[in-house]
Design goal:
The chain is of the alpha+beta class. It has a single domain, classed as Hotdog Thioesterase (Thiol Ester Dehydrase, Chain A, Roll). 21% of the residues lie in helices and 36% in strands. It contains three helices and five strands; from the N terminus they run E-H-H-E-E-E-E-H. A five-stranded antiparallel sheet has the order 1-3-4-5-2. The longest helix has 17 residues. The N and C termini lie far apart (36 Å). The relative contact order is 0.25.
């Protein structure tokens, strides 16, 4: 199986806009919203790497979540600035794994990873990770600008 790990410097940080409705009565982000945060950051990360999801779809592929692991260490509180740090953990034959760190205020609030399998456009089965996607996710992240 082909696998490529990203270099530790291949990390990108993305701002997340939070909304009042995402907070519960305790004044903290309700846990399900962390999944939305990492999905928004994933999409921005793909675009920053030069291989946006719309390109993947235009080339006849898509991705599906097969695994998500999130571990909370602190709460994102109402009024905190929220950022998600994203990096490529692994690119396999038909799947990719990304790592995340959710930062609220000035503290790490959650860490996790998600694994996606590449599927053909008709979503009838797995497909190999496209070469251009593999290259984009294993090359140094392009700086903002």
């Amino acid at each position: 199986m082909t696998s490529t790990a990203a270099a530790p410097t291949d990390v990108a940080l993305f701002p997340i806009t939070t909304h009042y409705y995402q907070y519960d009565q305790q004044g903290v982000v309700f846990n399900m919203w962390y999944l939305a945060f990492i999905e928004d950051a994933r999409n921005a990360y793909f675009a920053r790497c030069g291989y946006a999801l719309d390109r993947l779809v235009a080339e006849g592929h898509d991705i599906q979540v097969v695994s998500i692991d999130l571990n909370w260490t602190a709460a994102v509180r109402y009024g905190d600035e929220v950022w998600v740090q994203v990096s490529t953990e692994r690119v396999g034959t038909t799947s990719i794994t990304l790592s995340y760190e959710v930062i609220g205020g000035n503290r790490t609030c959650a860490r996790g990873s998600s694994t996606y399998v590449v599927v053909d456009g008709a979503i009838t089965g797995k497909a190999p990770v496209p070469d251009a996607m593999r290259e984009a996710l294993t090359s140094p992240v392009r700086p903002r600008g």
